[in-house]
Structures are given as structure tokens and as C-alpha cells.
Amino acid sequence: MLRDPVHNYIYIQHRVILDLINTKEFQRLRRIKQLGTASLVFHGAEHTRFTHSLGVYEITRQICDNFKRNYPSQTAGDGLWDDRERLVALCAALLHDIGHGPYSHTFEHIFQTDHEAITAAILTNPTTEVNQVLRAVGPNFPEQVASVIQKTYPNPQVVQMISSQIDADRMDYLLRDAYHTGTKYGTFDLTRILRVMRPYHDGIAFNFNGMHAVEDYIVSRFQMYQQIYFHPVSRSMEVILGHLLTRAKEIYSDPEAAHGAAAPYLLFPFFQHQFDLEDYLLLDDGTLTTYFAHWRQSSDPILSDLSHRFLDRKPLKSAVFTDQTKAKLPLLRSLIEKAGFNTQYYTDTNNSYDLPYDAYDPKMKKPLTQIELMERDGNLVELSTVSSLVNAITGKFTGDQRFFFPREMIHPEPGNVDLFDPIYNQFQQHLHNDNII
Amino acid sequence: MLRDPVHNYIYIQHRVILDLINTKEFQRLRRIKQLGTASLVFHGAEHTRFTHSLGVYEITRQICDNFKRNYPSQTAGDGLWDDRERLVALCAALLHDIGHGPYSHTFEHIFQTDHEAITAAILTNPTTEVNQVLRAVGPNFPEQVASVIQKTYPNPQVVQMISSQIDADRMDYLLRDAYHTGTKYGTFDLTRILRVMRPYHDGIAFNFNGMHAVEDYIVSRFQMYQQIYFHPVSRSMEVILGHLLTRAKEIYSDPEAAHGAAAPYLLFPFFQHQFDLEDYLLLDDGTLTTYFAHWRQSSDPILSDLSHRFLDRKPLKSAVFTDQTKAKLPLLRSLIEKAGFNTQYYTDTNNSYDLPYDAYDPKMKKPLTQIELMERDGNLVELSTVSSLVNAITGKFTGDQRFFFPREMIHPEPGNVDLFDPIYNQFQQHLHNDNII
Amino acid sequence: MLRDPVHNYIYIQHRVILDLINTKEFQRLRRIKQLGTASLVFHGAEHTRFTHSLGVYEITRQICDNFKRNYPSQTAGDGLWDDRERLVALCAALLHDIGHGPYSHTFEHIFQTDHEAITAAILTNPTTEVNQVLRAVGPNFPEQVASVIQKTYPNPQVVQMISSQIDADRMDYLLRDAYHTGTKYGTFDLTRILRVMRPYHDGIAFNFNGMHAVEDYIVSRFQMYQQIYFHPVSRSMEVILGHLLTRAKEIYSDPEAAHGAAAPYLLFPFFQHQFDLEDYLLLDDGTLTTYFAHWRQSSDPILSDLSHRFLDRKPLKSAVFTDQTKAKLPLLRSLIEKAGFNTQYYTDTNNSYDLPYDAYDPKMKKPLTQIELMERDGNLVELSTVSSLVNAITGKFTGDQRFFFPREMIHPEPGNVDLFDPIYNQFQQHLHNDNII
Amino acid sequence: MLRDPVHNYIYIQHRVILDLINTKEFQRLRRIKQLGTASLVFHGAEHTRFTHSLGVYEITRQICDNFKRNYPSQTAGDGLWDDRERLVALCAALLHDIGHGPYSHTFEHIFQTDHEAITAAILTNPTTEVNQVLRAVGPNFPEQVASVIQKTYPNPQVVQMISSQIDADRMDYLLRDAYHTGTKYGTFDLTRILRVMRPYHDGIAFNFNGMHAVEDYIVSRFQMYQQIYFHPVSRSMEVILGHLLTRAKEIYSDPEAAHGAAAPYLLFPFFQHQFDLEDYLLLDDGTLTTYFAHWRQSSDPILSDLSHRFLDRKPLKSAVFTDQTKAKLPLLRSLIEKAGFNTQYYTDTNNSYDLPYDAYDPKMKKPLTQIELMERDGNLVELSTVSSLVNAITGKFTGDQRFFFPREMIHPEPGNVDLFDPIYNQFQQHLHNDNII
Q1: In what order do the strands lie in the sheet with A348-351?
Q2: How much is the ipTM here?
Q3: Which of A170, C123, C304, C392: CA 20 to 30 A from A68?
Q4: Nearest C-alpha in C relative to A208
């Protein structure tokens, strides 16, 4: 029974779960922030993947309890809940994020790592403590748990608990991120949703009378993406981080070169793309920031400056561009170049689609992700066909595309540059109300 | 206007405050946890000193607003609030913790650093960004702000806002730690307390009709200390951390010895007690845990094992002892030694007084720390003389003394040791219900 | 300073406001429930119009404070806030509902009263305590306050504080009704909305960067209407109440007839439609339920039965019908008649439009009700043109039409009737999943 | 599944419970406020005994669930929980307050009614709907449920769920009253307390490791009594109510006298102390206030004035007196008499002990009310012997004694009286800081 600010308490009822929490692979998650660079925008959101993973476990436990009480399977294949599935569901819930590394999305992008493959490896590789705990349950148990996370487990109810449009993962992170950022948008009625969830042959459906609670969850998720996860400053800090790691990779690519005392030894395997699981598990947020602290004093001015910008939170500025105004980017880049910045490291574009947003869209190719409401007579209807609110959001979100550039282009710093150089004025003429015009 | 989970929003109304937040010294606080090892017990409590410092600022801002609205000074020396003091109060509030390093209490103890002296240095040393921002306000301003934190500033109202029995610092950390741990004990009615606070000649008093709100704050503080700050597992992890740093200091004391690639270069100045401000400011929680990750592979078995115990959260066990049962400790230590543990590194004692607990005690020598209630006719009465609840707590808390020892003494691990060695049985006979008997 | 569960505290800063609260007309609001029959569905929602009125006052006070701090008028006609308008705004906010009687909507419908006209009368009629307090401010002050409520006051900023798409009235009742019902749908970020509100020439606009908070408010309102205010059981209890009062009016229409000891003397003026203000102010929820308790024993079986159904909460059942299935109603009514019920008193239809729903629709004829966002350059854009969420809701809500009938038609009570009478079976064949088919 | 603001949802799992809620006796509780006159001080606290009764039911249900899961009885007499007791516990929880009438404490005092006896009567008298529902469970079931409420039921676990120092009744009202008043004092960790509650042979104990949660509950209760339940203005309104009913009883004592149209027919049985259960069940808060509205126009000036003071909330003022200053009361009364007030109706004294406060005192004669903590080895220790906080409160609270008098004595109203009459000045000389001196 662990105290938790979101779920009040987290109830541990199996020895296996306790042992998994106590593995070094799971404890490592304490050192990896859940929200990455978004914590640099929402200062309360310093919680980690450790905390979130416990929450996903707890929601899954509650789902199992509800299913067991209200929908216990009587005969195999009746589409109801077989409580012997509980342990595999709970383990998958707890471990679903265990392969994440520091600042996952950016790190993966630069070093071609794959947190899903690593998750599977941590579960199934006999060298890990996690594997040892799982193996004690049964020889195939590690693979079973991994297959739930990989969505290949035969029982769709178990798979959908952990990954579907309304799963324990999303429900926990929305509530938790809302709690720690202090926003109110992410809240929805978890109790009610759990109450109207029900197993059926093809997975999990929701009783029709719970439609409003489901609707509210979808709207909350939409708002959290728009306001927290896609925040321009958070995306800007990710741009800096990516460029910083790219620069480091370039500089340290020659392992033979003497790199001196403060070399980033733990990153070398990644610079050379020759890492194993053990190398990966040594990394956490603190490892990266410790190297960045070293690099502040690097003789490479770009590495040093980008380290400073990341550690001291000096975001790039950004402006929205459209397919129409995109043509202006080369001109803007040339002005930035003239102002003395290497545009490879000091500009970038991204759109909010780069992030793993999964707006609810029943027209997508994976039909399992639909949210099905079950009417009193057992008939299923897809949510967006009965909810005007959800229908309004479905498949329509377009996000924004942004061009990132140094703040100095609009606030040139006296002393360093000629404030009256016409390039600044020229640059600013192309911006209006945070848009490129 | 920053969103904050505890105060809803934090309002920044001066350019100086914004500039201070943007200094590298202040941003560093994002990488230092507020609760240190307690976050290993209360998993939600991963918030940092950065977040807390903003909260102290915000409460101070609200106090100033209330004082300005309701008790504006008309003539010098009338004991009311002179709003020209606002900026020095706000800066002191924001910066009061800026000298803290990683796991401050333990770190200070091992390396004889002093976070208060370092705070003063960060404010007044011309090399820091903080000093530059403050100096721009006025040549003496850095020293003024430092003197508020050092309690030597002439206006006691300003000093007491930041440090007294009911100050912005304590009020923020109680509310914030309660919020992030998910406990309910730390909550009290901040709005009401701010409303009944009032300036007078000797500092800050409280209107008599707010007694219950003040009483509730005192009780909340008492409960938070008993349940969060003095938690035995948190203290146990501090013991491990202290021994780990001591061991490292011992091993790395000879700087000439070749320490190989992964040596803790950033800690060398501290091992040799020859550090300057810049050395200090390079450290954060991540630096320490990164070195611990290196040390896991150390050839020194104690350094390696303690690193593992800290990173993977393997607390020592503990038992309460009294002045009577204290005599048993040598015997217990000798059994632990026999079981193969170096007792210098694997046992310890501490009592909850080691922590900076400041139970409200009007009989202490610093009379300023009394809480004074002001009756309608201006008369002052000390809180514990009118509140039976506070009176009950005042000066009576005794805490507990604990002996820490390896978990293996009560749960010997099969494979490593002879489970039937009589020393384990012998050891356990001296324990009952977490007490040494 | 009154403690309030929604706003924490309500600050009274003018003697006039305190005096208005202490009038008998305002105290009467303590005896009139805010939500009428909805409190019979959401049992926590037993709060009154008194409490809500204080909340509207408090929000208005906060708006005035924000406007005064951030947008103080410098010269007449500059479109900013003139704080001399504060008192008239506060009084209008506090008194905007003072003309409400018990179960207003139903009562008005049956007795042709008009709470808006009565509000104006209470403010301007020299016999009331409210008028006396207002008149003490200035001879025209009562009329000024009344004109704010009637939307004829010249300053549109003051009018829109109290009545517009996002006014103090709606913001308080959404938050308060959500709090007391225990739903989470009604919550939105009041602090943020107040912060982005700003005066301009034509009234009140919102800074563009607050769009998401405004959007969330609109969605919350939509959800509260769908789930709380339009709840079918609440509407069913209103149907019973209306029929009960109609029956009483019929029975007691002859004042000469001897009605015995327990006659509803306080209602006679309304039965005869010859009431004055004093008659009206004697009524409250308790008056009605006291008469209903008397009428339980009435010799008129319909009056007695409907009194019982209302007091003991025996709602009629209901089913949705459409323009297509509407043709079935005569048949259903005839079956109900056959089962022994007077269909005039035991059936009804209504749709959720009967309730004062004000879905945000910028295409409506009253252009003032648009929500305008102000961009950084002062340009105004209407909310639904930039928010896909709001656009989705705008003017599209259609509600439902329901037919109400006695529960006995689907659950005939043994003993009273012939359970095997084919009319029950026949009736039920036309219903499926709460719809008429 | 009913939505509840305090417990989120209330789960109805037995048909009997639903049927009990639907009885007219239980629905009547919707019209009786939980806090009586305290709602005139804390305006949000307008909730009723209906709502509270549902909450007590829900907490009891959760206790039963916990007991069943964690402490199921294996053999008769093993001191664990026999789940066949569930239904009697739930019914007793739901119905424990069903005998309450309007403003119970005052009403009982004036009319010598006894809500406990009436509760028993409602349960066991065959004329009530409640009795009919209970009897359907078993012929002795009504008596069994009644005996739980009367504490004579043989199983002490069931009795203590409903009435003991930490029972479902107190836990619900503290949380609920705190929620609706908006105070924070009444909150405590219900989940944790339920988790550490456990059955044993002599009733219910608490696991030792839950001590802090129990302690916090005791402190919260203490604070709620001091700040909400003993509030002087609430007690003052009770004084007015008592005098008003006394006066009415006097005036209407002669039933033969013609009392005109607006006579309080429903109260006659009580004026003559010849009432039966049916008479009692016709009364609610609204009945009384409706008569008070009638009496406003009474020709008896005291009845009329007290009705006005109660309905329009014009509390008497009060001052604290001690055993020393008690001697001043005759003098003060004579001055009040001189000022034209009938002191029998316009003055009173009471102390906070008049209210049913049950400060936790293990020295009281009823040993069952002790709170026992169970150590790991099964040993029981009484709470105040191990908690310094609880020890501080135990049996030490003394409350205050107050003298109530007309506000006009300190704020004489111009026009009515001679403001310069020396009696006012004389009267005020005996008061200082709300104390009689």
C-alpha cells in the first residue's frame, strides 16, 4: 500500500509485483522524467516514469477487480473476464514503459534506439532482474508479458487494458500530468469510466449510459495535447536537445581521439551505435545533464553553447508557418546565417504531429482502436456516431508547424552584435503575432 | 504568470524576478530535489527546490499585497508596512535556498559545506548571474537581500516573512510536500492565515480571531515531521548516502592516483576540501547518481555495494532504541561484524533530532520565534498560552533514536551465507516490534 | 469575509453589500433551492439561491479588482474600466436573482408570475428593505441597479459582467452546481478566465492567449446542461409539480368555498392571480412542501396522489420520441387512460428546450452574446471561428423530446390492477431502450 | 450508483436498501437540514440528513467490504467478520437518523420529543413504509436493526460500525460538514482509516501502523467542534428558535381559542403533547418556517419579533462569562429589562456542553468508547497512551459559557429608543473583547 497523490493509494497484492518494483531496472525509472522537456515549461511536472508506471499498474488492478466482480467468465469463450489473466495484465501494466531512456523521443531519434524493442529485451533477456522475477512465475511468463505490450497476446481484453484508446496508460498519464502541471483540463471521472468498462469477445467496451464520461475523457485528452504536450517552448527545448546530442555525436565520433578527463564515457557506445542492454540501462536524465555540465566548458563553441541553452533553459523562439508561408524559410535561414548562427544547429522546423499523438479516429486502419458503446440490448455503437462532441474532434486536429530560431534574432543582445544591422529588422518584418507572414 | 499546482498561478510582476529565475544558478535548482531521500519513500514527491522557491516567492508576494492593502505605513516607524520593502522581500524569498546542493544535509555533513554561506556567496559574488541581476537594482542590493536571509536586515517584518515560525518558506513546503506526497496532513488554510497576518513594530503578528487557522498550521507541521520528514526509511537511505560519500572520499583522497576514465572529476575539489563557488554550482542530484552508476562497477566492494543499495533503493533496516537499550548496540554490532559486514559502513544510529526540526517552543532562546496573537485592543498573547492543542505539542516532541543495520541480518539471503548460523537467530532475539529489547 | 466552499472566501468590502445581505428579501433566498427538482436527482445539490447570489457577487468583485488593476480608465470613453462603476455592478450581481420564487420555472408557468419583473419591483419598490438600502446610496441608485439586470444600463461592461455568455452568474452556477452535485464536468479554470477578461468599448473581451480556458468553459457548460440540468428525472419531477399546482389552482379557485383548517392561504392570491409583492415574498420552498403535506390528506384523489408523488419522489417514467414517432402519442395516452389515469395530470411531453438553455450561438440575433477574443494587436475574433471544439457545439445541440407517463404502465402494481390486462403489454411494445418506437 | 460529492459514488447493492431510500419516511429527511442553525452561519452547509444518511450507509458498506476481504470469519466466535451481518449493519447505518425532526435538538428540548425513541418506532411500527420493507426481510429484522441503533445488538462489531468513537456516522458528518462549509479542518484520511480498521472479539480496533490517521481524525473532530458546531452565532440562532417555539406553545396552548386561518395546525399535537408518529412525520424544516412566516403578522409582538429575527437572521449577541463573572448576569438582565426587552425571551445562557459533544475520553464510564490500537503481536493499546496529540485533547476541552442578549444593547437603533439613555453605556462597560468583565 503505497501512498499516491493521484490514486490516493496503490495496492500491491502480489509478491511478484513487489519484486518487480524492487528490481534495478524498475528503480531506474525514478531517474527518468515522465514529461521530458515539458517539465521545463510546467515546473510542477517533475514526476518520473516510475510514478506513472505504478499508476498504470493500479488502474489495471482496479479494472481487473471490476471485471472479476461484475463480469466473471463462466465458460471458456463466453467473452467475459477470466481472472487467471490478472497477473499477466498487472505485470504488463507495470512494465510497459521500462524500456524508456532519458528524453526518449529525442534520444531515440538521434541514436536510433527503440524503447519498445528494449522493453521486450528487458523482459526476456535472462541477464535482467526483471526477467528473473518474471521467470520465477513460469518459464514462458516473460514472453507472455512482453507479448501483451507488443499487442500480440491472444486475449484482446488484456491487450486493450494496456493499449487502446482508453487504456490504463493514457488514463494514468492524463490524470497525473494534469495533477503535477496543475492544469484542470486533464481531469475526467476515472471511477465512472472504470465502472462502465466491460469485457466482450473482441476486447473492452463501455456501457452506453457511461457515454458522457467517455466523451469527457476524449475532450480532456484533446485539451492536454493542445495545451501541455504540444507546448511550443517544450518543443523548442527538444529541438535544442536534439541538436546538442547530434553535435556531441559528431565531435566524439572518433573514439581514438583523446577526449580528456570529462569525456562522456557512458555515451560512447551510442555515439558508435554499438550498445548493449547494460549500456542502455546505465543512462538516465542525470547522466545526460552531467555530461552537459561538462560540455559547458568544451572548446567546441556550439557544443558549449547548446549545453548552456539546455541546462539554463534558454529556448529558441518559434513562429507558425503554413504551406503557403513555408517558402519564406530559406530567406529567414539566410538572415540567421548572416547574424552568425550555424543554421544546422540553431534552426529547425517541426509540427505537432512529430509527437505520438493519437487523436481518436475510427477511420484509421487499426479498427481495434475504436471506442464501442454497448447498448442495453448488447448492440455496439461507435462513440463518434452518437457524441457530437467527439465527432467534432475526430480526425480533425491539425496541430501547427513551427520554425524555430534563436531568440537573438528578435532580441539582439547589446555588446555582442550590431543592433542596427538591418538583418534583424528584415527578419522581424516576416513575423506577426507569432506567425510567419 | 506561471501555472503552479499548489498556488494555482505564480504572478511575476517585476522584471528583476523574471531575470533571477532565468539565471543559471536558479535554473540549477530544477535539478535538486526538494525532499532528497524522502522521494524514495513517497514516490510522488519528486519536486525540486526550483518549484518550492517559486512558491515561497508567491506567498511572500501575497503577504506584501495584503500588508499594502490593509496595513500601509503612513509615517516612518508606525509599525505598519512600507511597500518599498517589497522588492528586497521578494528577492530574498525567491533566493533563500539558492545555495542548496544535492542532498544537502548529508552532503554538507560529509564535505563540510555550508549552504547558508554559499547562498550568501551566490548573492554577493560578482561572478554569478544572480549577483549581476541584483546589482542592477542598486550597488548594495545584493548585500541587502543576503542580510534578509541571514536575519540581520533591520526590518523584522521582512525577515519574519522569510524565516520565522510561520513564514513563506515553511508554509510553501508544507503545502507542496503534502501535495506531492499525497498526504492530507500538511494542508492548512493558507488564505485565512495570510488574511490574519499583520505587521507590527517587532515583526509579524496574527489577529486573534485567526487563532484556529494558526493552530491548525502548527498541528499540520507536527504531523508532517512525524510522518514524512522523519520517516525511518528515508533516514535509512540518508545513512547509506552518507556512508557512500564517505567511502568515496576515502578512496579518491589521493588525487595523484590514476582513477581511470570514469573518475568523479566534479567531486575532486570536495574530496580535497578545496572547492570554489564554480565547482559547487556544477553539482546537482544527477551528478551524484551518475557517479554512483560509475561506482557500481568499482573494484572496491563497499563502494560498489553501497552505490547499488542507493541507486536500487535497498534501505537498511532499523530499530528503535532507548537510553536503556542503548547498551545492546555493541553486541548487535559485533554480530553484524561476524556476519561479514564492515560496521563502519553498514550500521549507524541517528535520531530524528538530527534533522532540522523546529518544533514551536516559546521557551527557546530566540524570542523572535514566538507566535504572537493580537487581540482587538492591540494586546499580544503568545499562542501556546491560549491554544490547548499547541500547548500540548510545544517543546514536548521527543522523536526516536534508531539503529540502522543490514536487512540481511533478519532476512539472510540463501546462497550467500549459512542461514543456520546462530548469529542471525541471536540478533533477532534482541528485536521486537521494531524495537531493540 | 464569509467562508465559501467554491470561492474559499467571499470578501465583503462595502457596508451597502452587508446591509443588502441582511435584508429580509435577501435572507429569503436561503429558503429557495438553486436547482429546484434537480436536487431530487443529485442529492448533494441542496444549495440555495442565497449561496449562489453571494458567489456571483464575489466573482464580480474579482472582475472589478482585475479591471481596476490592469485596465484602469484614464480618460472618459477610452474603453477601459472606470472603477466608479464598481458599486452598481456589485449590487446588481448580488441581487440579480432576488425575484426568484420557489421552483421558479414551474411556478411562473402555472401562475404567470415573472421573476425578472419581480426582481425589478423588489429593487425599486419603496416598501422593501432592499430598496431602502439602495436608496441610501443615491435617489436613482435602485433604478440604476435594476437597469443593469434588465440590460439597459448604458455601460456594456457592467451589463456583460452580470449577463453575457461568460458572466459572473453562469460561472458561479456552473462551478457551484458541479461542486454540490459532485460532478467534475462543470469545472473550468476561473482564475485564468478572470485573468484574460478585459474591458473594451463594446463590453468585455478575452485575451487571445486565454482561448483554451474559454473553450473549456464552453465545453463544461455544454456538459452540465446535458447531464445535470436536462436530466430526465428532474424534468419528470417538474412535470409532477406543474400538474400538482394546476390541480390545486383548479380546486381552490373558488375562494368562497370553505376550505377548512389546512387551506393554502398563502397561495390564494396566486390562485386568483391577485397577488402583490408582499404575498410573493412570503413564499419559499418550504411553504409549498408544507401545503403538499396538507394535501396528502385531501379528499381529492389526484391532488393527494400528486402531492405524495412529489414529496416522496415518485417520478413519472419517460421515453424519447421524435417527429416520426410523435404520432404514437395519442395511442399511448389512450392506453394510459384505460389503465385508469387521468392523462391531463399523469402524462406530459417536454423537450429540453423548455429549459433556459443558451447554447453559444454567434448567429443568434443578439450580437452582444458573442465571445470575442482580442489578439495582441487589438483585433477581435469571434471564438467559434478559431476553436474547433466550440465550433462543433455552436448552435448544434438538439436536446431530446420526452413523453412522461406513470411508472405503473411498465411496472403495474399487484393488488391494484389486473396485471394481465393486455394494455400493459400493448403499451410496452411501443418502447425500446427508453425510446418510443 | 448515486453520485455523491463526498464519497464520489454511493453504491446500492441490495434491493432492500433501494426500497428503504424510496420510503416516505426516508424521503422526508430531504427536508431536514443536517446542521440546523449552523447553516445560517456557514452558508454552503445547506445539506440535509438525507444526504448524510446515504453517506453513513456508504462508509458502512466499505467497512463491510474491507472486513469481508481481509478478516473473514472462519469459525463462529473467532472474532472475525461474519458477512451475514452485512444487511443488518447497512440498514442500521442508513436509518440511524430517521427519527430526527426539524431542528432536532431545540425541538426536542421544547416539546419533549425523543428522536431515538422515534427512530425505533419508525423501524418497528407496522404502519410505516420503513417497517414494511424491513419486515419483508424477516419477521424480527426490524427489531434487529433497531437494536443495532440502540446498541443492544449482540455483535459489538456491528454496533461499533454505527456508534463508537470512530464510526461511520461521525466519519461521514465530519467529512460532509467540512465539504459543505468549505472548511479544511474536518478532512482526514478516510481510506487509510478504513484500511486499518479491523474486527476483533470486543468490537473494532485499528492496526497500530494506522495510528497517525486515527490521531488526525481525532484532531479534526476537535477542530470541527470548536469552529463549526460550537459557533456562537449558530448557538444564538438556536436560542432564538427555542424561545420562539416556547412562545408559540404558550400562545397556542388553548386549542379551543379561535386561531384563525393561519394557525399552526400541524404543531397543535405538540403544543398539547399528544402527538403520534404520523403527526411527527408531517413536520420538516419547511413546516416550521412556513408557520414562522405566518407568525410574522401575529398580534403578539414577541412571537412576531422572534419570527422575524429567526427568518431574517438577526442573531442575538453574546459574551463569554466565567464562574467568576457569572454574578454579573442579574445586573445585565435588569439593564436589558429596562431597555424594554422581556428577558425571558431575549436573553439566555448556554455553554458548548449543551451540545452533544463527545470529546474522546477513555476515562469515561463507557469503556467501549475507547480507541484501541492493535500491535503486530495482537496486543491492544489505548490511543491516548501512545499519541501525545490525542493525550493533549483527551478530557480537557472545557468549551465556553455564553450569555446571549439583544444586539440593540450595544447598537441601539436610532428612532426607537433614547440613544443617550445611560443603560446602554452601563451595559457596555461590563463587556470587553466579547467577555463579561
Answers
A1: A348-351, A401-405, A317-321, A435-436, A431-432
A2: 0.93
A3: A170
A4: C433
